[in-house]
Amino acid sequence: MAARKASAADELEAAPFLEPEEAKLHKGGMGWKRAAFTMMAEIVGTGVLGLSHAAAKVGGGLALVFLVGFGLASLFSSLLLAAVRREHPKVDSFQACAELLGGRRAEFWTALCINTSWLFVLPYYLMASAHALSVAFWWTDTCYATWALLSVLLIGVPAQVRTFEGISSLSALSVMSVALALVIIGLELVRGGQKNADGPAIWAKPPSSSVWDCFDAVSSTTFAYQGQSMLLEIGSEMADKQDFGKAITASCAGLLGLYTAATALGYYYRGARVAGFLPDDLEDNVSKTCVGLLLYFHVAVTYLVNNQPLSKKLYELRWGSLEQKGRVVSLRWFGITSLLLVWSYVLANAIPWFSAFQALLGSLLGAPIMFGFPVAFYVLDARQAASLRHIPTRAALYTTGGLVLPLTLCVGTVAAFVGLWDAWGDGAAFSCVPEGYAG
After folding, report:
1. Domains along the chain with CATH numbers
2. Which DSSP string corresponds to 344-382?
3. How far apart are CA 56 and CA 249, in angstroms?
4. Is residue 236 a contact partner of residue 21, using CB atoms and an 8 Å limit?
5. What are the DSSP E strand ranges found in 253-343?
6. Cα separation of 350 and 148, whole Å?
7. Which ranges of the chain have pLDDT less than 50?
């Protein structure tokens, strides 16, 4: 332990390029365990609640292959980010990394992709919040659109907080709420026993499963592991940058265990009929209400976390720095957050299918962020030239960037749109109780 502390001190002395504030952060930032927990908190969301439905489409065996395969791919791409940041300690975001390695044009396109992903993930979280409220108040006949509107009104107030610091306490409670909700869901599924009248869970691929179902499951799995866009920000707040890779490895291992358990429980106890939003399969009782309220709180806070940087970016594009205070600034911020809430409400009602929208986000936006940018950053970094000569490294890079990325981005997106087209054929958009609401 003493040697470890000494090495950290020596590292600080050997890094005169650090500004005073950066040196302070470097010295007193997060340890790797706290960083790993923060990474899991950023990545784990409602995506885990759709994995059982994805497994029902392809069978337990293929679902496990997807979970492990994409879990390892996520680990590899995240470690690529760790390697780049190890060589460039000042890099603290995808945009900063793109500008350093590719110039201003690369920074522009990276920012566009990241901000677009935030723009489209907001309706998804509003959709999930409406689902959570319907789960919590299962005894009512309230329309889906009404739940979404209620969520808009509830989220609109805390959305006026303009800093991460202002919602930091809510974030900690959010992590606890989703963890507790998953525990209750597991206990309720076990207590209720198997209910698989439409077909039990099977290990082999179901006879009715198509190639589109397989890629739809791939997209849902990709979305569940998505979260790389903020890893560099987390790494920048760690006390020892050498532990960034350790934190990533621990978080990925935790995610794999959690996702496997959630998928197995939901698919085993509900079989082929498992809902796209797992809480919909719970029995109508007080536990279901608790799960719905816990998930609503978690999803609402997640909306706020994703809304804050996007609203800030839109404000700065139009009016410059947000450091000023006053009524005019507050009104402008209110206008931006309200516009985003209206956008989210309209899209959440136009595409009210949890699993289908999740698959679309996973393939169209999650795939390039997870598999494209990390590979590009690593290859463009001249300081990684020596490792690029190693055959295993090149093979992993070619597989991730040349095979996994095109399949998940191109074919996965087509499959997701096919699923949405089928759902729209039922006339579910903007209806009171959408077809496929629970699956």
Report:
1. 28-424 (1.20.1740.10)
2. HHHHHHHS--HHHHHHHHIIIIIHIIIIIHHHHHHHH-G
3. 29
4. no
5. none
6. 12
7. 1-27, 435-439
